[in-house]
Amino acid sequence: MKRAYYSSTISAFCNQEPNEILGQMTRAHSFDLTAFQTAAWVEQTILLRECLLEHKGKIYFEFSIPRMGRRIDAVVVTESVIFVIEFKVGASTYESADLEQVMDYALDLHNFHEGSHNIKIVPILVATKAPAIEIMLEDDELLSPICCNNKNLGSTINRALTTYFKHLIDCNEWEASSYKPTPTIIEATLALYNGHSVSAISRSDASTLNLSETSKTVADIITRSKADSQKSIIFVTGVPGAGKTLVGLDVATAHVDPDDELYSVFLSGNGPLVKILQEALARDKVTREQAVGKKVRKGDALSEVKAFIQNVHHFRDEGLLDLLKPPVEHVALFDEAQRAWTKAQTVKFMREKKNSPDFNQSEPEFLISCMDRHNDWAVVVCLVGGGQEINTGEAGISEWFEAIETSFPHWKIYLSDHLTDSEYAAGKIVSQARKNSMVTFKPELHLRTSVRSFRSEKVSLFVKQLLDLDEDAARENLSLIHDKYPIVLTRDLSVAKKWVKKQARGSERYGMVVSSQAERLKPHAIDVRVKANPVHWFLNDKKDVRSSYYLEDVATEFDVQGLELDWVCVAWDADFRYDKIHWKNWSFRGSKWQRIHKSERQIYQKNAYRVLLTRARQGMVIFVPEGDDGDHTRPREYYDGTYHYLKRLGIRSL
């Protein structure tokens, strides 16, 4: 992939006419160009020629950052420093949003571009008409943004090169090095919807099963099913954060062709996730259209994206309107398919909420029946996470198999033999499936490694070991993690907040998460009964008090499942407490804690903490309150066991 509109050695660039450079960039640009953009490119070119005459290396204009769906104005690789430069031609002030933007670009290279990992990166914001600011250089691999105008950019570059001279960068080696991004699900959705491939925005190294390989396997099954007029169901499994949703979104965007009457839909029962992705896509579409001088109403943008990403319950309700009419989509992808409702839960809901007293199917059975209405072919893709059931009535994966075996024996089944792993609770069913001629096992359909955290792939395993009380394994695993992925512990909430704020740079998102049962954190101004709006919490910026950045509103497992933040503060209440050798499950009712005895609810609660502890991409702080012996609902003994257990695993205390 050509990463930049223009790239050249610095010497060739300095000897080339600006109009030639402009012509090359114009040809690479696929959208309508404004006069302001072309004028800005010309001014950037002239300014950088003056600054770089005495230097060697390479220069790139409009350098692509696929993960963010953005382009860096200029990247200069010279001597021993990488300069990431964002121009604001004609600007007379240095705006905080622009400083954040150039920092994000530098972070992307630092974190995801292999050739940039151990090289000094200097982000520079150039507001050409702004006043000069005294330059402060830091002793850090990745500097904070430097503010320059059109007069002192050259001297800033020279000073940085003098200060940070080490070994020379091999520009060809740098350019050829791998780009291994791990986008958030929001970033991935935006990139895929705007035409990037999963291979462009995901890692492809040997330590992980390539997401594009899994996507290709699913795509091949869809192609074969269409050609053979066959109905197929595919189970894509993986550990938390392995990229199952990313695979689903990639398949959904790739299988839309109105000319061939091919439509796909990405479905999720995760209401917050659906709303956040729809809102993010709509905002992005409005912004992109405005950037090229077009006007689009946000409501119209929302209507368009809702055809692509839908709440599974809306899809179900549409299927109830006409029990014979097939949906327009031939491919339906169900995210978090293990959360589909059991027969008992679905029947209860349909009778009480939908006035359907005769309804007698589980949610998986009805959803498959909707796709089975097609006379020719159909494909259902189930994206399955292990140990993710957190709500009453969620069936796990077994209900899907039972529906196929009972009602749809003509459907072909594709899955990985790793579906037998304990978290999926499907071992017995899969053993029976091995005897079924309609079942095909494909190892590519299981994603074994978490890519949520680019800092460490072992975080989800550590959380599993922590929750399973496998102390020795957890302690050993943590020793391999902590240098790249800090996990710290504190009993002071203010310390936890300061730590998480200090870690974040640029627009890296941080927030506080708690269990939905954590009702005795109120003395710390954490009230789970006050529901945060997940759209504002995940998408709004640092100036908005409703955003996660403020660390005031908290999100529960229901708000954050399927999503992630860069840095997380996990507030741990007495609802799930360690008591010498076991976890004890409690629910706060009225004015006291009550034991949870039902094994199903105990599993939900354990899974809730699994979700909370696997939300952070870069690191987390765990806050366990001191408790108060003067409050019968919060004595110290309710919290001390958990704190000392976590500390015993080797988690560093602040």
TrEMBL record:
Superkingdom per UniProt: Bacteria
InterPro entries cross-referenced by the UniProt entry: SLFN_3-like_DNA/RNA_helicase
Domain Schlafen group 3-like DNA/RNA helicase positions: 231-625
Pfam name, any one: SLFN-g3_helicase
Full protein name: Schlafen group 3-like DNA/RNA helicase domain-containing protein
Organism: Cycloclasticus zancles 78-ME
